[in-house]
Amino acid sequence: MTVIRGLEEAMAKLVAIGEEGERIASREVVASALNVQRRAKERLTETEAVDTGRLRNSVTVAESDSALNAASDQATGGPQGSAGGREAPTMVRPGMLAAKIGTNVYYGPNIEFTGPPYPRPFLFPSLEEERPQMLRRLTEALKRLESA
Known about the structure:
Helix content: 55-70%
Number of helices: 6
Strand content: under 5%
Shape: elongated
Strand order of the largest sheet: 1-2
């Protein structure tokens, strides 16, 4: 995993600034999480890892593991269910400063890491692609606030 120096520091500074900083940090967390979700779904399609669409539909964003599992369950009928025709609801709210992006479909890790017939990573590359973009946006927002 690539380490992007400064992400935690930028978030902490924005939160320390107060209400405006927290609002900006939250906006960037939600925007980045939605970007990762969108790109992960695109990667599943691009790598031809989609058979029924169940895994792709189950990729969601939430603030906690329990909310993520509930949203994925709603789309799939549970970890081993068959209701794969619905998109999982995205569970974001104003003010959230952390996000979980994932799926509860039991074969998701197999697609990501082992295959068959070969691994087709969709979630981790999407996260790594977004990480520097989020840091750039947070750093720019912090500079604007500090210069105001």
